[in-house]
From TrEMBL, chains A, B, C, D:
<keyword id="KW-0378">Hydrolase</keyword>
<dbReference type="InterPro" id="IPR036291">
    <property type="entry name" value="NAD(P)-bd_dom_sf"/>
</dbReference>
<keyword id="KW-0520">NAD</keyword>
<dbReference type="InterPro" id="IPR022616">
    <property type="entry name" value="Glyco_hydro_4_C"/>
</dbReference>
<keyword id="KW-0464">Manganese</keyword>
<keyword id="KW-0119">Carbohydrate metabolism</keyword>
<dbReference type="InterPro" id="IPR053715">
    <property type="entry name" value="GH4_Enzyme_sf"/>
</dbReference>
<comment type="similarity">
    <text>Belongs to the glycosyl hydrolase 4 family.</text>
</comment>
<dbReference type="InterPro" id="IPR015955">
    <property type="entry name" value="Lactate_DH/Glyco_Ohase_4_C"/>
</dbReference>
<keyword id="KW-0326">Glycosidase</keyword>
<dbReference type="Pfam" id="PF11975">
    <property type="entry name" value="Glyco_hydro_4C"/>
</dbReference>
<feature type="domain" description="Glycosyl hydrolase family 4 C-terminal">
    <location>
        <begin position="207"/>
        <end position="429"/>
    </location>
</feature>
<protein>
    <submittedName>
        <fullName>Alpha-glucosidase/alpha-galactosidase</fullName>
    </submittedName>
</protein>
<dbReference type="Pfam" id="PF02056">
    <property type="entry name" value="Glyco_hydro_4"/>
</dbReference>
<dbReference type="InterPro" id="IPR001088">
    <property type="entry name" value="Glyco_hydro_4"/>
</dbReference>
<keyword id="KW-0479">Metal-binding</keyword>
């Protein structure tokens, strides 16, 4: 029995500018658990700053629990005696990310995010995997019984690496993309059934696929099958797209009008359950042919320059916060991390979607591959819920990515450049010639070589 | 969307003297659904009588919903347009059951129930399977979209036959044995933690195995792991047994003091989650060596004469009830059938144990075998929850029964007497010589030959 | 026991202009078996002509056995009481084939054969599958115990269809492409070891993959591992290509200089064991980018006009032969059909490569998919030999085709145009935009619509 | 390329009194290979003696090749630079073997061999597995590329242990029991077809099962299916048994009249392909009920006293031989070890039965379990041949033993006495009460405790 008020959470990547704040808020809003959070980051100063912010949040009147935040200087220190480990790191700097996203543009290959699949996601994976090897080994040594929650992308390969290195690890990955789909379905209910859905989780969905290329083949609200209503919704909004506030998609590079999602439904008959920016990258360059095409589908390419600007803002905001110059407001993040922690502590059981090794929950995908389905969380257990089989045509696309991820992992672990290249060229987004693909690959590898020790680059 | 107040339930075996009453009670206590129940039984009069009783219950003041009961004379009539099908039949008469249970006693083979495994369960399966072939074909034709809930034993083989004949069937089997284990664990909480568990389902268990030979390898209450407490409990009560009221086990042939369960924990380290009478039959004759041994383990052989007497009582009680000579009281049965029906109608989701084809929820057992694990019930879906792998020594025992069940099914479907015999002799309870086993087999087959058309007996 | 001298072979597609002759020759050269051959063809006249030719061959002095050839007018007549069934049909006419091969050229998509994968192979499959459904049903009814040998392309899908319709069928598919690889390895032995290999089959190879995209990861001659020598060979000839007679590749559209094969070895490290024309079609348009690229890799696009011309020649040649105006010469065809028939008759056992459902002989590919590996042929049995696992990067490419083939089959069986389209766009050769792909698909379907009854075209 | 005349064979258990001689003879009769044999034995003197004998055999005029034998004092010395490793050890002394075979007799449990399954085989396994752990580790370190041939019993568990410890090992196990079945089938051919089979291997059999409980479901000679003839043969000889020379079975404790084999065919319809002494031990005590029953089935219990006497004779014989006091004769042993070595050296390919991890060659048995089927041996490869699925009733019996073997392995590796006991009681031969089984287990463990370091005995 774990004492609910002396918990220790280790946060790897604890200098993070966004996820860390979400966690701090959500913890502060939950009275049933408390304890301390050890923040570890290769940028120690950032962790120190976050600790300051966290401790101030804890002091706020609205805070329902008192968590103590502390920056630590080694991973071991963070992990030792922790009950939970949260991993949310930036693999490399914005320089490498800029190469991931923008180098392919020279070859006419556009990516909306560049952190999961596509040339950018692939190269990001190559440099992230060794970091996760190190983390997994450290967890094996210092916190083998802790629950490990991953938030870093590429989600599937990060989680897969943890299990490859330490098969007994108690790890899974969380992502909020499916929540958006539930919210969208709540809009469908509103529109066609004239009912206000009380909370997102009242929309029941069967989730199956892989992270950011996740599908929903069953959706219901109470005793209402939502698939036929979604079909009508798609028919109505396929061309214009759907937004809560008209035109608002233009205000944020992270927004879209769901047109990619609707088009995929028209083509494949099942709900694609991730944001358009992610979905587009798993397909051949239908939606990402060029910037004009992207605009016509009403979503955005996210430039790394934008991210840099954005980060600057957040850094100065954080500085202000850390120094106590700003009044905080505690808002629930919409993430489920704390809810899941509660379930793992036996406080209340929850069924939600999660990235986890395939134990058979998706039929036809290889056992051990990291897949996204619902799981049942209870005291000290996560148990995937059987999700069935994807429709054949979607299965084939998903399976292709699963295969690429497996060989990307092996290439990264063995530093096998030829295997890496032979996998890289399988990315559906990459329809350039083999010669160009090889050239691009070489250039991208060079740009990230600081994080690829031991490779023949 | 199914209308929650015009439901149709088909009840195959609707003349039943016990399960039918449980259902009537539970339906009457649930205000959120209503409709009609078609009772079909080869004994039409019994169905008529139950219809009368059911309709009277519906009229009672305490009844929260108004269900209409009707006896029908064909299975087709019952099934047509039904939303749910409940199957709870007596395969054959008490004469055949008497042979199942008592013929082996001539050879020194004792059985406490004789309806699941052992020589009795095996022969019962041979005669039940053709009935389930007929039912499955009828469902395929008349109610292919209905949800089918089986209560008949042998549970695994009945459910397995449904899927063999009609693979797209939406069927599962329910049994309350695990609930008793949860209740026992609630007693453990009371004894060692001094806390009163509000409801049985607050005890969370991971269920895995096959019906009546089901195991629990994880059990918790809130954030408390109950396994170490169960261990203490077993140590304390292994010799004396455990009862809520001392000596009460002697008052009912269905009662026990859990000594078999405790002994299995001592031998195998995991909680056996069924009644002692069932568990004993899956093992070699450790607990069923002879009547004295049975008594020493503080459980009972259930004689079929007793069942006959018991039935007579219930029949006359029913007659009284049907004629309206008695005041009814509506009591919840403790079964979960109605709760599951509610979940399948999207009213509220539930996680509970169920008998269902193995989709991988138990690692290492053949896919398609009927296994018992938790499942998530939601609007129009049942999804098994991944349960993991049994400890090797238990796995071996369970697997042996799974293999026997598969060849029993094939023997029954092909009327292959040699295969049947070669399977019969694999029953762990049967340690007589091969010659005696063959003789016993012949005798038992002869006794049940009215239900084995086409066999060379 | 089958009488070796009263055999009956049914030949479906018995009007064939090439395979039929190969069989006639090989049968005539084998003294240990004899009997009759029933030739069935939708072009009855062509079958009659072949029967005449066959019977003349039987009369020749060099003929070691006397086979009787007869044209029959129904498939049933051919199949009844047959011991072996050979299937070698032309699915559709040259008009459809012309569309398969040349319509994609309008979109810049070039194919060297167009009968296996790529847009042409895919559409060919859609029209061939219904024919194979009919053949399989006829075999099930009229010759369920016969051995069935398929020679038609697309090999994998033809054979897969036979098993889908009649799972107990005793069928497999034969293709000579691997033999060419053995012959090439014999050249390697000659060049580097200065030894003349007596016969092709003395080169032992481990075969794994799918038809026409088959790989050899182990090759030996006596106790010599040939892989290192093949590596040297590739290094020497990668640029120039290899031919026995210099320049001879230009004399036949079916010839090549193995440059594709060598390049694949350089990229993937394992021997690609099919002709360059076939291999190129399984890859993205590396080798088939445009006609100039094809020439630079020293192989050919096979135009259907050429095939038409070629056929005309063969027809007039056949007419001459049928009328007895020509002197025959009996030459062994180099095919292994008769050798395998001998093995299945218990005359002598043989190990050779074959297309057969995956029973696990290739690890990691789905069970039931038609794969190509070695098998052991003995009296009345074919047993695949365990071949292991492909290297990850090759596995991914092969698996992608396997997945496409499975959904092509389902699309063809259910006449599901959307599924067909969603599969079509997965062809690696097709890197045009989604819009163009849809347009091309529609055009190609229209061109073959005579063979797609029931489709919404 | 391995030089065929500078081979090195390591012989673990090189002091052996019988297998070593077989190998020496077979090597001497084969001209195509030569080299040296390093004999390692914990009894160094015995190895020295065998070296002397081996070198004398090499000198004989009839010897076709010159092998040099040398006794070495460490396993490392034997293994280093070896091309082949042969393992044939006696695990423990005759004292432990006497306990294995005879201690159960006190409880009425009789065993005819006691080295594979049954209480004796089980306990033998417990003490052998640690020895194989050591051997496997040594091979991993000193001869990772060598081919390893196991002859020690329990065959399945010895081979399984090698793979558990060193998964990349190139190991398999050889046993001659199936050969006897081929010879018996040659007698069937003689009797009913009046033909003399030239060599045993002309009888083609499909082998499937586990060592000593191996089955043949297809058997042919040329184009003749032998199963119907075997059926007649069994009908004729079931009661009397079959012998080449009448009454000869009484002259050797290793002989039988095949009555067990015939009875199993009558019961299960498939040929049991091992000696009666082995087969009987896998079944419940049908054939081994008591010594009288054994006699009535016309086979023998092999007492360890007999083995001791027998060994004494062989020792003195060996001494004479070693001293050169006797004239040698070189006779082929009938074993296939050398033939397989030739195949692995690329000299000539062979298909024969072998014990190897299940890669899917037997459907329905767990992957990785050591099963016995045919395999194709070629230059540096062994590849199992797909054997199909056992009939359900036999499958169940075989599977039960496979499960026991897996948990025996785990018990031995983890020294888990409770798991060992829970596995021990699953032995079909053991139908005593649980109490007696526990007592017997304790006694047997104590008797072998010198070989169970680290166990809580
Ligand atoms: Mg995400
Ligand atoms: Mg029950
Ligand atoms: Mg071909
Ligand atoms: Mg043996």
């Amino acid at each position: 029995m774990t004492n609910l008020h002396t918990l220790k959470i280790a946060y790897i990547g604890g200098g993070s500018k966004s996820w860390a704040r979400s966690l701090m808020n959500d913890l502060a809003l939950e009275s049933r658990i408390s304890g301390k959070v050890a923040l570890y980051d290769i940028n120690y100063e950032a962790a120190v700053q976050n600790a300051k912010i966290g401790n101030q949040i804890s002091q706020l009147e609205e805070a329902k629990s008192n968590w103590k935040y502390e920056a630590v200087s080694t991973m071991e220190e963070a992990l030792s005696e922790s009950d939970f480990v949260i991993i949310s790191i930036l693999p490399g700097s914005f320089e490498e990310m800029a190469s991931d996203v923008h180098t392919p543009e020279k070859y006419g290959v556009y990516q909306s995010v560049g952190d999961t699949v596509g040339p950018g996601g692939f190269v990001r994976a190559l440099r992230t995997i060794p970091m996760y090897v190190e983390i997994a080994n450290s967890i094996k040594q210092h916190a083998p019984d802790a629950w490990v929650i991953n938030y870093t992308n590429p989600m599937s390969l990060c989680t897969r690496t943890l299990y490859e290195v330490f098969p007994e690890i108690k790890a899974f990955g969380c992502c909020h993309e499916v929540f958006e789909t539930q919210s969208l379905l709540a809009e469908v209910v509103k529109e066609f059934l004239n009912e206000e859905v009380a909370q997102r989780s009242d929309i029941k969905v069967n989730v199956l696929g892989i992270n950011h290329f996740t599908w929903v083949n069953q959706a219901s609200y109470q005793n209402i099958d939502l698939i036929p209503y979604y079909k009508q919704f798609v028919e109505k909004y396929a061309e214009t797209g759907f937004e809560k506030e008209e035109g608002s998609w233009k205000n944020s590079v992270f927004s879209s009008c769901q047109r990619v999602k609707f088009d995929l439904f028209k083509k494949y008959g099942v709900i694609a359950a991730a944001g358009d920016r992610h979905l587009a990258e798993f397909m051949p360059p239908i939606y990402l042919k060029d910037p004009e095409t992207v605009s016509s589908w009403k979503f955005h390419l996210t430039s790394v320059d934008f991210r840099k600007e954005n980060l600057k803002k957040r850094i100065s905001e954080n500085e202000e916060l850390a120094e106590g110059n700003h009044k905080f407001e505690i808002n629930s993040s919409g993430e489920e991390g704390v809810k899941i922690i509660l379930a793992l502590l036996g406080v209340e059981e929850v069924v939600t979607n999660v990235n986890y090794p395939n134990k058979g929950q998706i039929e036809g995908l290889p056992l051990g591959a990291i897949v996204e389905t619902n799981a049942l969380f209870r005291n000290n257990t996560v148990q995937p819920v059987f999700a069935g089989r994807l429709p054949l045509d979607i299965h084939n696309m998903v399976h292709r990515h699963v295969l690429n991820q497996e060989s990307a992992l092996q290439a990264a672990l063995t530093k096998d450049k030829q295997l890496a290249l032979n996998t890289f060229v399988n990315e559906p987004l990459l329809t350039v010639s083999r010669e160009e693909a090889e050239e691009l690959f070489d250039e991208m590898l060079k740009n990230t070589k600081d994080y690829l020790p031991g490779w023949a680059i």
